[in-house]
Amino acid sequence: MNIPRLHHGVAATLALALATAPAALAHPSEDDPATAHFLANEAILVSAGETRILFDPLFSVSYGYPLVAPDVRAAIMAGTPPYDGIDAVFVSHVHGDHFDATAVNAYLAAHPDVILVGPWQARLDMQAATGWDEAFEARIQALPFIASPQELVLAADGIEGAIRVETVHIPHAGGPGRAGIQNMAHRVTLNGVATVMHLGDATPEPAIYDTHSDHFAARTTQHAFPPYWLLGQWGGETVRQRLNADAATGIHIPIQQPDWLEESGEDFFTEAGETRPIPAHGHD
Fold it and tell me: Strands 14-15, 150-156: parallel, antiparallel or unpaired by DSSP?
């Protein structure tokens, strides 16, 4: 896969925070470990103790990729187990196989305690879509289109700092024609002990990752979820090294899976309902 090179500069880290009342963190236990649950395409539920987040869960266009099953989507919208108690939803970018603004508006209306984190383009689309409510503004962390990493500290179930977000813009794969798409790589630490990374449709251009090497080196990710082409082009060892990740599971697998996928020996989410454990580690 040959992707034309895209360059973005680095600026100082932008820190954003939500003020909350102090409380102790609820850590995963041996009986309730942190786990990633695969839904479809790039949609993942991550649970750690009582903290639960969703990545790219509400989308309506296939583009040759699997859709979230209707019963699963209905359960997400209704907030029935295991989709009850969701604390935050993360959006990588606004393409239709990752994001449906009308559905997200409906979800926020139905779940008034959920925070949405995503690119400012997502908020613009939501404002123009059916179901927009000005009250959503207080619950949306819309990240600006800048090259430097951005940080958020979010509450979950009244627990201060239960969700730590470190996000950087990694250009969308596909070259200059996709340069206007604000693709976000979210590194999220739940309860201080389980860190995951979701990269959306990140470019495989190595220079971009070299530019952000300090960001990736600053925190070890227990489990990264890159688009499958990173594993296909780089190989798992390089993916883990560049992202500073202990493990990596590929996502965004087409319905017509590439011939090399099974033979690669790399780990991928291919079937809805698959899970991966996320080992708990201490963090600064």
Answer: parallel
pTM value is: 0.89
Map residue 167 onto helix, strand or coil.
strand
Query: What CA–CA distance (Å, rounded) separates 163 from 160?
Result: 8
Q: Please calculate the CA angle 177-179-185 and round it to the nearest 5 degrees.
A: 130
3-state secondary structure of 72: helix
| Tokens (6 digits) for 242 | 């560049």
Q: Which two tokens stand for residue 153?
A: 């500290």
pLDDT in tens, 44-91: 999 999 999 999 999 999 999 999 999 999 999 999 999 999 999 999
CB 185 within 8 A of CB 170: yes
Specify the amino acid at residue 235: G
CA quadruple 190, 195, 197, 198: dihedral sign: negative
